[in-house]
Amino acid sequence: MGIQLGMPAVGLPAPPTGASAPPVTEGGTAGIAAAAGIRAADGLLDRYGRRATDMRLSLTDKCNLRCTYCMPAEGLDWLAKDKVLSGAEIIRLVGIGVDVLGVRELRLTGGEPLVRADLVDIVAGIRANHPGLPISLTTNGLGLDKKAQALRDAGLTRINVSLDSLHPDTFAQLTRRPFLARVLAGVEEAARVGLGLIKINAVLMRGINDVEAPDLLEWAVSHGFELRFIEQMPLDADHGWTRDGMITAAEIRGRLERDFVLTPDPRQRDGAPAERWEVRRRAEPETVAGTVGIIASVTEPFCADCRRTRITAEGSVRSCLFSHEETDLRELLRSPGVGDAEVAARWQDAMWGKPKAHGMDHTGLGDADYVQPDRTMSAIGG
Ligand SMILES: Nc1nc2c(ncn2[C@@H]2O[C@H](COP(=O)(O)OP(=O)(O)OP(=O)(O)O)[C@@H](O)[C@H]2O)c(=O)[nH]1
Ligand SMILES: C[S@@+](CC[C@H](N)C(=O)[O-])C[C@H]1O[C@@H](n2cnc3c(N)ncnc32)[C@H](O)[C@@H]1O
Ligand code: SF4
Ligand code: SF4
């Protein structure tokens, strides 16, 4: 059962009230969390009683694909190298998250994390400090065939690979690159080296790959992968998203139900973006063939139970995927004499100002008052 928005969770400090409470801005005001009675041990708490324990860290803003729902065809102005957190800074920041602020799982993302030459060293460095921490990677799979074994050896727990089509032409149309075979080689190698349960992420685009939904699911269950369909969100550089144009979760279930029977997965959702369904083929209704997830950020939002804190490649906290403000931690990390406690306090301030949903005080992607963030999904760290 998720925490109700607006209600402090049991045992947590109440949100600040009264004239003495400093104003809350999404980016955080120095000391605001402390002024509200939040101690380091309270972790990454927000005004609505949610506590972030799931850290999503972007390793780079760069990418070697140009997915139409994410990047512009010409790419973006990549960050200068010195603006991006170094491996040592990342390892320190994860340490502060885990040891001081109660982070319980870590996802490495981007941009495309596999383009970072020191990725294996970063994973190994984090693993050495946190033997029990689940560390997962979200990737487009390009180059995974070369790095899967090293990543597993370094201590990576799991991997999610984005793959929207099994047809070379459709793949190239969606990603603007003809690399389907390379992605499939990466998925195959990740499975061979035993990189946990592999999850496949697919965004369905109307008139392009939406007809492929049942084929993608058949492919995934027959390989033992967990496929998740993601509703397209308004985070594309081209501002091409429309509420009417996107494929909804209800529509996805409808398309799948022609070939499969879907029943709710009895496992707890536990704050996960994906709602999971057990999958049975209509031709074999007695046997569970696998699981499918649907991530319905637009039509069935899950913000009330959000447990995520994001760090961008340049070391800023984004309390929400759709935030309009960021809180820089890199400057503190690079200031001689600044200790972990000070970095942790600024991170807590940023999270205290986390919006209720979708960067606003209510849910509603595509509502009249929704304003798309300046950054695209790739630059936020999806
Ligand atoms: N609205 C919203 N969507 C999110 C958030 N985090 C992830 N998503 C969506 O979920 C998709 C899949 O994310 P992944 O990186 O695979 O992570 P995950 O689903 O949390 O990971 P698992 O723990 O492996 O199930 C992303 O591409 C986003 O579309 C979030 O905080 N808010
Ligand atoms: C931004 S990418 C970063 C990691 C890696 N490059 C990849 O593609 O997996 C993470 C996830 O965001 C998803 N994504 C990107 N733009 C999106 C959008 N506008 N709506 C929904 N999901 C999106 C991608 O499909 C991918 O699964
Ligand atoms: S979704 Fe991932 S692979 Fe596609 S352009 Fe965005 S960052 Fe790159
Ligand atoms: S939109 Fe913001 S509040 Fe909602 S689930 Fe995503 S990160 Fe959390």
TrEMBL record:
[4Fe-4S] cluster 2 binds at residues 303, 306, 320. Residues 47-273 form the Radical SAM core domain. S-adenosyl-L-methionine binds at residues 69, 111, 162, 233. Its cofactor is [4Fe-4S] cluster. GO terms for biological process: Mo-molybdopterin cofactor biosynthetic process. It catalyses: GTP + AH2 + S-adenosyl-L-methionine = (8S)-3',8-cyclo-7,8-dihydroguanosine 5'-triphosphate + 5'-deoxyadenosine + L-methionine + A + H(+). Its EC number is 4.1.99.22. One of its GO terms (molecular function) is cyclic pyranopterin monophosphate synthase activity. Binds 2 [4Fe-4S] clusters. Binds 1 [4Fe-4S] cluster coordinated with 3 cysteines and an exchangeable S-adenosyl-L-methionine and 1 [4Fe-4S] cluster coordinated with 3 cysteines and the GTP-derived substrate. InterPro entries: Aldolase_TIM, Elp3/MiaA/NifB-like_rSAM, MoaA, MoaA-like, MoaA_NifB_PqqE_Fe-S-bd_CS, MoaA_twitch, MoCo_biosynth_MoaA/MoaC, rSAM. GTP binds at residues 56, 107, 138, 199, 308-310. Pathway: Cofactor biosynthesis; molybdopterin biosynthesis. [4Fe-4S] cluster 1 binds at residues 63, 67, 70. It is an enzyme of class 4 (lyase). Keywords: 4Fe-4S, GTP-binding, Iron, Iron-sulfur, Lyase, Metal-binding, Molybdenum cofactor biosynthesis, Nucleotide-binding, S-adenosyl-L-methionine. Monomer and homodimer. Belongs to the radical SAM superfamily. MoaA family. PANTHER family: MOLYBDENUM COFACTOR BIOSYNTHESIS PROTEIN 1, MOLYBDOPTERIN COFACTOR SYNTHESIS PROTEIN A. Catalyzes the cyclization of GTP to (8S)-3',8-cyclo-7,8-dihydroguanosine 5'-triphosphate. This is GTP 3',8-cyclase. It comes from Arthrobacter jiangjiafuii.
